[in-house]
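[09:14] KT: can someone run the structure on this one? pasting the chain below
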Amino acid sequence: MTRTLRLAVPNKGRLESSTATLLRDAGLVFEKTDRALSVNVSNVDLELLFVRADDIPEMIADGVAELGITGQDLLAEHGNGLVELAELGFGRCRLVAAVPRTGAAESVEDFAGFRVATSHPSITQRFFAEREIDVTIVPLKGSVEVAPKLDVADAVVDLVSTGSTLLVNGLNQVGTILESQAVLVAAPDALRLRSTELDQVATALAAVVAGRGKRYLLLNAPESAVEKMAEIIPGMESPTVVPLAEAGWVAVHSVVDADDVWNVLPDLKALGGRDILVLRIQQLIA
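[09:31] RB: done, structure tokens below
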């Protein structure tokens, strides 16, 4: 008998809240308590496992779960051949190299002979080995940014969102090693054996991510302005145009990038558009 599909998700940290929101926005119904290690989704045959984000790649590789949500940085560090199914659009950060502000290094090419502290030793080792730069990796679990002050290292490779923590600790960024965000991942064996179920989860989550980046725009407009409006809001293929009871007027429906709404609204109004509505999209499958 095939077991219930398992999805491993972060139980705390920078990805926890956004992951829970994504799952609920995708239509999954579940209740989680602070002490819960796992819960069954009530409307889908799916079990959620709440674990450390760092442990998720290994759990999937070991077959404990078929799917997981973790960061691309952790996937690169502990990936073990896992397959990335979808980028999820949150938890964006960068793995950067940084040195003390008082130091002479201006780029990673100046790191030869350095001790480099990092919580991502595998990625860091590969990065410098590929560039034939001889460094000594100093693995640390946390507070990487203080390593130079304690004379534990000459430089650091650390995960940053804004970089403010590095600045506070007197460090300058001199290179980006990896761009990261949350991703849905799976093991190759799970993809082979349960591809339909995994694709269903991936499609539902990707549809939420796609919807977040778009807006559904509706307006009434003079029929004579439709051609010019179609140039401004072309939609997924082309705008939907519906005649209104009032002669010479139509309703125009289109999907636009969320980032473009600010710019297109004045142009549509200038062309005679009125009764303009901008709606969020819950899920979108193109």
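[09:33] KT: thanks! The CA atoms of residues 229 and 268 lie 7 Å apart.
[09:34] RB: yep, looked fine to me
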